[in-house]
């Protein structure tokens, strides 16, 4: 999708005024947060697992070349094929090449954020293929021609009424209004697609070097129908998703479901190893894995390596008050919320997403729930630092900071100005507050400014000391 | 600038910018609480700001310049204490990070970090045995956990324990007490609509408790919430917790009309 | 190892080089590789003091799965028949060849092939049960096609109590012990298919089975 992160401010204001969105967000926020909290309370080892998961990811990243090579070896040994894509374009070409070679007409898809990242659907559709998203949330937003607004609940921004409208328009009447009817209707429509599909594309939550397997974790079973019934199964995954062994994957599985949807485990955990065997009765004839770099190996080099620990659970956005206020679309690209505010500038460019690292209060709630302990606020601040260094920060802000520094490193001047401000502000205050202040509309448009009492603390303190 | 000589530790009071300008009463409250806890308190005149605005804006050089100033002003004290989780978290956590590659300043930053405390955690965790709260407050209060103090410094139980000793005060917890109020330093003026939405959520949770008073440990958050409460004419008084603990909350709350008697 | 002989060979080398550049090092030497290959992961496993069968049952039922216990394997067909009647299903089922030898009721139309689009009921045998989360582990193969696990509305799974293991890791041990190695698909199933994609409302029977019923043998 076209990145629109430069419109964050406008889109966030729109989001705040979108009543349907606010209804949906309000509902989602408490569900995710409450269920996760319950799971954490039920598992005394949770904190220990977070620490182990962080360390394990760091170990994998330190030896990423080794584990990728071992993984590739094991995939090939099980009859699968591994493709490497340096960037989005290369990934699209590889997948398009496979689809064309097998004469694909219908392509079904399980949820895959990497496929969103590489703009896969558009490429397939432009080449005459029917692309069907099978995750219910993804299916809903595909009908709405919208990108996902959440990495695990892509249609979290939609109300039931909106889904009813979309289904009625796509499937014809009568209009369904109850959740079970809506789910049944999607089930019926998609059933046929699974059986007709030539190619099934899924993501990969984890890639296991030990066995050459890809693991997907779902609740609906759509990913399994997608990858079992199509003639060809293609897994799209970032290079950082490799883990050494099944036992290592288990550590993340224990954290993923709890952090993502607040479940002890998702309904389906599926380990796929190669294509259909000689005596198998079902399964795909070809099994491909497309390993996508797209900026990841560069992230490995510096301060942002921590971000590659991300297991895409969405807990950071579920707990982010900014995400909770504006939803995912305001962020303007594939990954929203705190993790998206780090990833988007790193993948798409610092200047393409100026606002994302800045639209954060650094309250730290995201970091406190991250199952792999990514210091998201620090990374966001580090991005601001890069913006500052590369002169992406607006000139006025840099100038203001320069003046602030100049004054604040001169204590006498600083205190004199504070005294002046204390007098001036208390002079214009009425009943203890200031309702309008020139140049401070950002504050006073929605809030009163508590008025100073006329003297600064230091001033009063020095006076008091004089009396002693 | 010493207050009263005692045998206790020498504490340098970090007079935060917002306190100094907007709410001197918080400073005097802090001094009283520290002295009651057996400390002698000084307020260096060479201090200004901790540097957090520069740090959080990505201007690390500016932050370092301010940090050096703070280190020089305070490193000769036994402790540095300030009535703000936000500023004190900057000194405790961010100063060592800022000087990670500076062998000359790193040890000084680390030394200062070790003896820097937010007021409530200092009272409860460091001076616990020496602290007795002798205050009255007639009212029902709800407490907002400011993010820097909560997540950066682990301040959660201390304020509640201390408030439990205030005569007449009833504490009623709000929903989502740990969720950010939307202040975020310059965030609130850079993204005013989002900030307004966040502070409105906070205000709703405060009002739902029926409490007549909001307390907190950080003036930034409190000014933000008070500013919104007053804009919508909500009848809730706002004080820094230090004012209540010191027994100095008898005057006007934040953004309230000054009382005639004072 | 040999790079695959396709167009992404260059990309492969470029990515691995980029990774090593980022890590500021050359490829690992033989000693380092050997150390990594010999690494034995030891992670914390959630502790519990429940009996494995009790825990499996409690957890599986908490996820809207149903369980019936029978004394022996011979009792499985009757149990499936009772389930079929209770849910008014036709006398037709896809039965995994692993259960071929059982005395299925007369009049039933049974096949052991992959499940077709109209399949209503499948009966499978689980490789093992995982007590930790109350999950079934099914290994694909000629005796247990994957489509049986996902296509029908009703999925009945036969599990022997002796095959209930404690943690996921114990399940992997079962997989590693198979002479034929890793199955193409290993399905770990914790109850019926579900979705919460419409307004966070949990709805069972999203794309996979609406009901998963375990017949616990022993």
TrEMBL record, chain A:
Alphabetized UniProt keyword annotations: 4Fe-4S, Electron transport, Iron, Iron-sulfur, Metal-binding, Repeat, Transport
UniProt xrefs under PANTHER family: LACTATE UTILIZATION PROTEIN B (PTHR47153:SF2)
Transport in keyword set: yes
Residue span(s) of domain 4Fe-4S ferredoxin-type: 301-331
Transport listed as a keyword: yes
InterPro entries membership: 4Fe4S_Fe-S-bd, 4Fe4S_Fe_S_CS, FTHF_cligase-like_sf, Helical_ferredxn, LUD_dom, LutB/LldF, LutB_C, NagB/RpiA_transferase-like
Protein name according to UniProt: Iron-sulfur cluster-binding protein
TrEMBL record, chain B:
InterPro entries reported in the protein's UniProt record: Cys_rich_dom
Domain Cysteine-rich residue range list: 11-92, 142-225
Stored Pfam families: CCG (PF02754)
Domain of life: Bacteria
Protein name: (Fe-S)-binding protein
Species the sequence originates in: Aromatoleum buckelii
Automatic annotation (TrEMBL), chain C:
One Pfam family per UniProt: LUD_dom
Domain LUD, chain residue ranges per copy: 123-217
Superkingdom, natural source: Bacteria
PANTHER family in the cross-refs: LACTATE UTILIZATION PROTEIN C
Entry protein name: Lactate utilization protein C
Native organism taxonomy: Bacteria, Pseudomonadati, Pseudomonadota, Betaproteobacteria, Rhodocyclales
């Amino acid at each position: 999708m076209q990145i629109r992160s430069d419109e964050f401010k406008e889109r966030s204001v729109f989001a705040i005024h979108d009543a349907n969105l606010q209804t949906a967000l309000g509902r989602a926020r408490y569900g995710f947060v409450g269920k996760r909290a319950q799971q954490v309370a039920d598992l005394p080892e949770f904190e220990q697992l977070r620490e182990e998961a962080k360390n394990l990811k760091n170990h994998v990243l330190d030896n990423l070349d080794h584990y990728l090579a071992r993984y590739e070896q094991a995939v090939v040994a099980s009859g699968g094929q591994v493709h490497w894509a340096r960037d989005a374009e290369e990934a699209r070409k590889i997948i398009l090449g496979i689809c064309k070679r097998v004469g694909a007409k219908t392509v079904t898809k399980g949820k895959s954020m990497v496929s969103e990242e590489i703009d896969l659907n558009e490429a397939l559709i432009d080449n005459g293929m029917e692309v069907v998203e099978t995750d219910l949330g993804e299916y809903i937003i595909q009908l709405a021609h919208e990108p996902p607004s959440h990495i695990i609940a892509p249609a979290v921004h939609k109300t039931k009424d909106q889904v009813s409208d979309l289904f009625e328009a796509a499937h014809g009447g009568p209009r369904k209004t109850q959740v079970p009817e809506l789910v049944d209707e999607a089930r019926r429509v998609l059933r046929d697609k699974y059986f007709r599909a030539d190619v099934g594309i899924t993501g990969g939550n984890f890639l296991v070097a030990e066995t050459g397997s890809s693991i997907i974790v779902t609740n609906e079973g759509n990913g399994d129908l997608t990858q079992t019934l199509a003639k060809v199964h293609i897994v799209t995954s970032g290079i950082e998703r490799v883990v050494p062994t099944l036992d290592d994957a288990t550590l993340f599985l224990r954290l993923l479901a709890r952090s993502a949807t607040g479940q002890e485990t998702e309904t389906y955990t599926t380990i796929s190893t190669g294509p259909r065997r000689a005596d198998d009765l079902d399964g795909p004839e070809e099994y491909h894995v497309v390993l996508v770099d797209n900026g990841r190996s560069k992230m490995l080099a510096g301060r942002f390596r921590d971000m590659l620990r991300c297991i895409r659970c969405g807990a950071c956005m579920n707990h982010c008050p900014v995400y909770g206020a504006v939803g995912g679309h305001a962020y303007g690209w594939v990954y929203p919320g705190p993790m998206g505010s780090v990833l988007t500038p790193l993948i798409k460019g610092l200047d393409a997403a100026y606002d994302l690292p800045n639209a954060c209060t650094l309250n730290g709630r995201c970091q406190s729930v991250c199952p792999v302990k990514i210091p998201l606020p620090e990374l966001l601040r580090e991005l601001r630092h890069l913006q500052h260094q590369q002169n992406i920060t607006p000139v006025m802000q840099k100038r203001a900071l320069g003046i602030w520094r100049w004054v604040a490193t001169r204590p006498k001047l600083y205190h004199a100005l504070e005294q002046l401000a204390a007098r001036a502000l208390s002079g214009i205050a009425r009943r203890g507050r200031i309702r309008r202040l020139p140049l401070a509309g950002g504050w006073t448009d929605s809030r009163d400014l508590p008025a100073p009492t006329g003297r600064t603390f230091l001033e009063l303190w020095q006076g008091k000391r004089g009396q002693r | 600038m010493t207050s009263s000589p005692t045998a206790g530790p020498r504490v340098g009071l970090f007079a935060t910018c917002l306190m100094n300008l907007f709410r001197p009463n918080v400073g005097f409250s802090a001094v009283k609480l520290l002295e009651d806890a057996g400390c002698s308190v000084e307020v260096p005149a060479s201090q200004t700001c901790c540097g957090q605005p520069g740090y959080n804006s990505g201007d690390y050089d500016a932050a370092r310049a301010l940090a050096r100033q703070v280190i020089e002003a305070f490193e000769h004290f036994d402790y540095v204490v300030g009535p703000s989780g936000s500023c004190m978290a900057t000194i405790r956590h961010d100063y060592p990070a800022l000087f990670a590659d500076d062998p000359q300043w790193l040890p000084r930053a680390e030394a200062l970090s070790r003896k820097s405390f937010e007021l409530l955690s200092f009272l409860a965790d460091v001076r616990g045995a020496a602290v007795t709260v002798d205050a009255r407050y007639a009212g029902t209060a709800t407490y907002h956990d400011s993010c820097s103090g909560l997540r950066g410094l682990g301040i959660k139980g201390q304020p509640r324990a201390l408030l439990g000793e205030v005569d007449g005060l009833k504490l009623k917890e709000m929903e989502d007490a740990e969720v950010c109020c939307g202040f975020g330093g310059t965030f609130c003026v850079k993204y005013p609509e989002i900030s307004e939405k966040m502070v409105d959520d906070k205000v709703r949770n405060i009002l739902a408790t029926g409490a007549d008073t909001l307390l907190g440990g950080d003036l930034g958050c409190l000014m933000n919430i008070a500013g919104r409460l007053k804009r919508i004419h909500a009848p809730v008084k706002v004080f820094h917790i230090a004012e209540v603990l010191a027994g100095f909350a008898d005057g006007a709350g934040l953004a309230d009309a000054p009382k005639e008697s004072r | 190892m040999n790079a695959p002989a396709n167009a992404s060979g260059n990309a492969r080398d470029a990515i691995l080089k980029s990774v090593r550049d980022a890590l500021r090092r050359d490829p690992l030497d033989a000693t380092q590789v050997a150390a990594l290959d010999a690494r034995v992961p030891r992670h914390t496993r959630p502790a519990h003091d429940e009996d494995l069968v009790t825990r499996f049952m409690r957890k599986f039922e908490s996820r809207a799965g149903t369980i019936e216990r029978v004394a022996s394997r011979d009792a499985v067909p009757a149990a499936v028949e009772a389930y079929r009647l209770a849910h008014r299903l036709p006398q037709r089922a896809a039965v995994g060849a692993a259960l071929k030898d059982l005395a299925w009721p007369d009049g039933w139309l049974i096949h052991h092939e992959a499940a077709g689009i109209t399949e209503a009921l499948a009966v499978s045998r689980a490789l093992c049960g995982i007590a930790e989360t109350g999950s079934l582990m099914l290994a694909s193969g000629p005796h247990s096609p994957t489509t049986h696990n996902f296509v029908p509305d009703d999925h009945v799974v036969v599990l022997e109590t002796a095959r209930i293991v404690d943690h996921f890791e114990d399940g992997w041990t079962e997989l590693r012990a198979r002479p034929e190695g890793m199955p193409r698909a290993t399905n770990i199933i914790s109850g019926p298919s579900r979705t919460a994609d419409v307004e966070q409302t949990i709805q069972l029977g999203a794309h996979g089975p609406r009901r998963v019923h375990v017949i616990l043998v022993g």
